[in-house]
């Protein structure tokens, strides 16, 4: 072994050690706890086998929490479409381009707590949003935006869309800007419309970023926590799967079931990401 190989292994040893201590070992510990009834206190771990997982699959509470996440899935898909649309538009010669780019990116830079406080005031009864609807003679649509069980998840998902739109936009915009200028020159010479250019040049050239954004969407949808927790604390039917996990662990002291739910969340993310990767590779083979 030469000296350079020793230095390489030494530098690799540090991140591998950190990954093992702070990444792999906690996951193993989480899996072990998921088979126990540990309450988070003391050192007694009563082995219950698959009982925690059986409880999760039989109880409608956890299925309802997972159903709430579907609202964020729909808003996430809409967010991706809107972000891509404006990324394409602002990649062309557009007046006020820098202003609109800043406008899209700004919500992503605001902390979750600040966003929650803004919308708590904005959507409060007789608040600014209600006054706006009254001014537009749409007062018949006024409801308790954060308290109505039929409306609250749509409201929270819309807030999530607004806040995360800038992340998708900047990913798409950067990908479009990296497309070689030769393609644009060819489209200009052939007289292609913006839609034809987008269909045959922009979308195929940005598929990798679209795929990346889909992976981020899956992770984001399953792990929604801050907006519903801060604004409603999961009340009125707005409890997402991660909020439910937190309540199980820190409020009900059911660390065993909370750990098993965390394992299920991880498996859902891995399986959906794997399926998306399979579809991507299958599409690549057909081409």
UniProtKB/TrEMBL annotation:
Bilayer-spanning residue ranges: 12-38, 70-91, 103-123, 154-175, 209-231, 255-279
Annotated ABC transmembrane type-1 domain residues: 65-276
Gene3D superfamilies hit by this protein: MetI-like
Record's bilayer topology term: Multi-pass membrane protein
GO cellular component: plasma membrane
Record InterPro entries: MetI-like, MetI-like_sf, UgpAE/MalFG_permease
Family according to the record: Belongs to the binding-protein-dependent transport system permease family.
Protein name: Sugar ABC transporter permease
């Amino acid at each position: 072994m030469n000296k350079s190989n020793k230095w390489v292994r030494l530098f690799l040893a540090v991140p591998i050690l950190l990954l093992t201590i702070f990444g792999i070992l906690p996951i193993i510990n989480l899996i072990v706890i998921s088979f126990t009834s540990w309450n988070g206190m003391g050192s007694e771990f009563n082995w219950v086998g698959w009982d925690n997982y059986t409880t999760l699959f039989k109880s409608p509470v956890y299925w309802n929490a997972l159903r709430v996440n579907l609202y964020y899935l729909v808003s996430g898909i809409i967010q991706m479409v809107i972000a891509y649309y404006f990324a394409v538009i602002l990649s062309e010669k557009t007046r006020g381009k820098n202003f609109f780019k800043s406008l899209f990116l700004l919500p992503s830079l605001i902390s979750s707590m600040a966003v929650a406080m803004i919308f708590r005031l904005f959507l409060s009864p007789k608040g600014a949003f209600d006054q706006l609807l009254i001014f537009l003679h749409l007062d018949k649509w006024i409801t308790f935006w954060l308290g109505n069980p039929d409306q609250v998840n749509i409201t929270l998902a819309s807030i999530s869309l607004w806040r995360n739109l800038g992340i998708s936009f900047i990913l798409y915009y950067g990908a479009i800007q990296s497309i070689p200028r030769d393609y644009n020159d060819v489209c200009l010479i052939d007289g292609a419309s913006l839609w034809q250019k987008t269909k045959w040049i922009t979308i195929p050239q940005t598929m990798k970023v679209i795929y990346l954004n889909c992976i981020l969407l899956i992770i984001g949808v399953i792990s929604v926590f801050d907006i519903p927790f801060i604004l409603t604390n999961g009340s009125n039917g707005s409890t997402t799967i991660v909020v439910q996990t937190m309540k199980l662990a820190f409020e009900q002291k059911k660390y065993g079931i909370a750990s098993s739910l965390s394992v299920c969340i991880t498996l859902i993310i891995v399986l959906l990401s794997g399926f998306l990767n399979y579809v991507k590779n299958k599409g690549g083979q057909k081409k």
